[in-house]
Amino acid sequence: xxxxxxxxxxxxxxxxxxxxxxxxxxxxxxxxxxxxxxxxxxxxxxxxxxxxxxxxxxxxxxxxxxxxxxxxxxxxxxxxxxxxxxxxxxxxxxxxxxxxxxxxxxxxxxxxxxxxxxxxxxxxxxxxxxxxxxxxxxxxxxxxxxxxxxxxxxxxxxxxxxxxxxxxxxxxxxxxxxxxxxxxxxxxxxxxxxxxxxxxxxxxxxxxxxxxxxxxxxxxxxxxxxxxxxxxxxxxxxxxxxxxxxxxxxxxxxxxxxxxxxxxxxxxxxxxxxxxxxxxxxxxxxxxxxxxxxxxxxxxxxxxxxxxxxxxxxxxxxxxxxxxxxxxxxxxxxxxxxxxxxxxxxxxxxxxxxxxxxxxxxxxxxxxxxxxxxxxxxxxxxxxxxxxxxxxxxxxxxxxxxxxxxxx
Length: 408
Prior knowledge:
Layout: H1 4-10, H2 14-23, E1 42-44, H3 46-52, H4 62-68, H5 78-102, H6 108-135, H7 142-155, H8 160-173, E2 186-187, H9 188-192, H10 196-204, H11 212-219, H12 241-268, H13 270-296, E3 302-304, H14 311-315, E4 319-320, H15 337-342, H16 351-362, E5 367-368, H17 373-387, E6 389-390, E7 396-398
Helix pairs in contact: 4-16, 5-6, 6-7, 6-8, 6-13, 7-12, 8-12, 12-13
């Protein structure tokens, strides 16, 4: 049975919820939650779907949520943003200085695990800053966003505009399994078109391993497009000449970095490049896939078809998580991710303040998980492995809690 606050929220109108947030006085939460409309085709956890389903007109509008956020939250500071870039590169420089000092000494085997973990973490932190550039929340200057975004993303082998374009599509369609770009549950007909090893990868969630992100950049996710490569300007991911020309520039920058790594391999040896760039790169890829997966996979969250989806309702299916003392090091990407999804123009350093304003209006629709990350990851893996395919024509899908096998 759902907690009373969740059940009651389902039976209150948007106007009542906004009134509660305005006066700060809880409503009388004694109404019974309504049942799902009879015409809906529902999959997954039916009880959760009945308690959490909202019609589109029962959800606060984006304008209502935006009015609650202090205006300064939408104003990026180029200098402040650049200071975070400097911080991350200083940290990486110190890590590489330590690697240089210990290389070939008895301390190397002790230092390397420390180096790998934190270098991979700061590669990931650079991705988060490039992510701000892609959303235009790093600076008000498009030129600054493009220069910094290309520099940071190319360093970690991401084609900036290619990623920016597909990530924009993800934000525009979050929670819509028919149109989202990544980690959506696949309709049976789409899943049936996936062949061989790829189907086994999806079904076992091994796409979350450290090679998952490079594979995604090369071939995309799912089976909707024949060519979904981020490294090809001719990819079906890009729909006009402007996008294709932008992608051509970003792919050229990607090749500059790839060529530099090839030269380093020729000059210093494959082992050196693998140890001091390859391992941190794979750790960063693991961070990216795990954090992104946990942002959008949680038992009880909902996926909709286009008819039952809207922007606010879909993006409120994102999940906030805190990664302890690491949260500040990767720029608070976990602690206010739902608000970021709703308002991607807010720079990362203003998101916590914005989230504090959004949560009262969103109420119980705003997802915050306080589970330990390893527990959450296990539950998300298990739930996804059991429910990554849904019946064609599903209107609403609620991710069920993982079930234990008889052996367990």
